Amino acid sequence: MEQIAALLHKYPELALFLSIVLGHVIGRFHYKSFGLGSVVGTLIAGILIGILAKPQLPDLLRWAFFYLFLFAIGYSIGPQFFGNLKKEALPQIALAVVVAVTGLATVIGVSVFFGFDEGTAVGVFSGGMTQSSALGTGLNAIADLPIPEELKAKLSGNAPLADAITYGFGDLGLILFLTVFGPLIMRADLKREAQLLEQQFAGGTPSGSAVLGARFGFRAYKIDNPIFAGTDVAALEERYAEGRLAVQRVKRGETLLAVEPALRLKAGDLVVISAWRSALADFERNVGSEIEDQELLAIALKTAAIVVTSRAAHGKTLAQLAADRDMARGVYLESLQRGEEFLPREQWIVVERGDILRVVGAPADVDRAGRHLGFVERDLSKTDLGFVAGGICLGVLFGTLKLNIDNVPLGLGAAGSILVVGLAAGWARSRFPVFGSIPEPAQRLLSDIGLIVFIAVIGLNAGPHALEAYQHSGARYFASIFFAGVVVTMVPLVVGLLVARYVLKMNPLMVMGGLAGAETCTPGLNALRQASGSNIGALAYTVPYAIGNILLTIWGPIVVAIMYAIRS
Predict the structure, then answer these.
(1) Most buried by CB count within 10 Å: which residue of 29, 51, 403, 473?
(2) Edge-first strand listing for the sheet containing 341-342
(3) Which of 33, 20, 84 is nearest to 549 (CA)?
């Protein structure tokens, strides 16, 4: 064991990546919907390896990766954040604000009661509210406090320790509240509420398949039925509009004809159509027999991610978009994504600015849909790294602006400023898609690797301090942190539920989805999906998720400033 410790101490980069590997192993263990996840798993693994090897890693490493994470998070939620600042979203915004403010007040209350320092307080907050970014912004604020370096080191060690102690129940407590305690308080059956909501949103139209659903096919047919001889392409497509039929090719003899709405078909013509599979069967019965012609069927297909920026598309349902033949002809939807969540592909789903529609169809059809809806991400592998670096530079500069009140530095700091710049950058990209390309896979990579490396370094540096804290303070101190975390987790949920259900009059399932979003807890939303048997709760998740990400992240330095003022 001594040899392993010496090896990890000599090669801190080995300790760093080993923490990430072991953290993901720990994060893979789940019981039903509950699991620690890779972030908390990496923190725990980092603390244990830090206790064993005491590796030395530079502070700049963790902050560089944390800034990448913050910018990517801000960039990804920017369009949803600004796009949802409207009257219809006010109840969900209010719920997120209530949960965030209650969480801030609760952590200050329990920290004063137990006599926690600034580091422990921000760790209890980040763990209890399941918001790891608050840990980073809080540590950033601790580094700016006018206190000796030795005390800064102690506070910086207490924060991740408190986060690790409280995060587990933060996740588990939220899941239990969303699936058990919350419905009991409201006397609500989540599955029944999901069915009622689906019927309400559908407005009497049948639910189930998405109007632009991906269950489509390309087939070639010979026009046999003389009734259709003389019918033009537009009329044929109109007849099968419900099946989203589009004529892709027409061959007459040995000649491929240009497909136009006014083109009249003749008996014996060979046509290639795309449509729902149910429509294809009906087409063969009534129009003509299917043929096998590989050359005729060799139509290029294009899959693309279309980012919605058009005012004309914003606020319309999928059914309304599908009915616009000028836009949707020959285009089929594979998925609809808002932020990090995939929404149901139902007829009544309302499309909003910043949504990502993944579609498939002939290249010309996909490009036409992109022009109507917003813009097509042309190269999903290209990331404008200069834009990322420039945004982080701007955030660091803004972070130097501080207001000193009674020797307490107040300001967003570098971390908070980078988040705000990321928000503005993501919004600007959605409005003016000519610069700053960061495709969604790259956003996920930047946020994932940025947070996980930051957490690993935090754990490795905090490991020796964790052992010292246990030897000095004992198990009672750790128990008080855990109990404080339970209070910080549960109180905002109860207050948020009461306000949302009985003041804002929100539907019970939407209340639960909003609470999961307000605490930015994706495992909680997944548990809600299983409990309700529906994905409709995700509709209430996205707006509070955007608001919660911002407020809870900014609360990190606020907690530090308030506790410093109280302790001073």
Answers:
(1) 51
(2) 341-342, 331-338, 356-361, 302-308, 374-376
(3) 84
